[in-house]
Specification:
single chain; 201 residues; alpha+beta; seven-stranded antiparallel beta sheet; 8 helices; 9 strands
Length: 201
């Protein structure tokens, strides 16, 4: 699953920008699940776009939307249910990135060290951008759940009223809720956008 939350209440502008910048691969065919983005009505000043299944250009389209609309963009990517990532942009400039399992694609210890540093997440940066407490953000952006104690930590919820534990990729819903992003939580989308096809000839 790939999603972008944009700090704007202009639903028409988000729809137009999604159509302008979003692309799907030519292998998607006519399957709406692979070609259509869903856009939720704004809540708390945030508009959420859920991209088509198997959407692979989240880190390309999200900064473009952020720059185009001149706003903050928070993007979540859930990879095969194994881990989740969060990236944050303001006006197209990346502010932060986090990966709940940076070791997933690491080939050796040196690469693992690099990925852990690059995707560690900076709670203070995220907190400042959203106007929330850094201690709240830090409970979600934590190191991978390796080793015995890491696995134990992964089985707990960041806060008692959260729906998911840290080792569940859906904990991002709780994370977003703490940041004020709730518009797609249990409500149907307000708009659907068929994305243009990117062809490889």
């Amino acid at each position: 699953m790939a999603a972008t939350a944009l700090r704007t209440s202009d639903l028409d502008a988000v729809q137009a920008a999604a159509a302008r910048h979003g692309r799907v691969r030519d292998t998607a065919g006519d399957d709406e699940r692979l070609t259509t983005a869903s856009i939720w009505a704004p809540v708390n000043g945030w508009t959420v776009v859920i991209w088509p299944n198997w959407f692979t250009d989240l880190n390309i389209v999200s900064p473009k939307l952020s720059a185009d609309l001149g706003t903050l963009a928070s993007a979540i990517d859930v990879y095969d249910g194994d881990f989740w990532t969060h990236q944050l942009w303001r006006d197209g400039v990346e502010l932060d990135r986090f990966n709940s399992s940076p070791e997933y694609f690491a080939q050796d210890r040196q690469e693992l060290r690099r990925l852990r540093e690059e995707w560690a997440g900076r709670p203070n940066v995220v907190a400042e951008a959203f106007g929330v407490d850094a201690g709240v953000v830090a409970r979600y952006l934590i190191p991978p759940y390796t080793g015995f104690f890491g696995r134990l930590r992964g089985r707990r919820k960041p806060f008692p009223d959260d729906a998911s534990t840290l080792d569940d990729v859906w904990v991002f819903v709780d994370f977003w809720r703490r940041l004020g992003i709730t518009s797609f939580d249990g409500t149907p989308p307000a708009r659907a956008v068929r994305l243009p096809t990117l062809r490889f000839d």
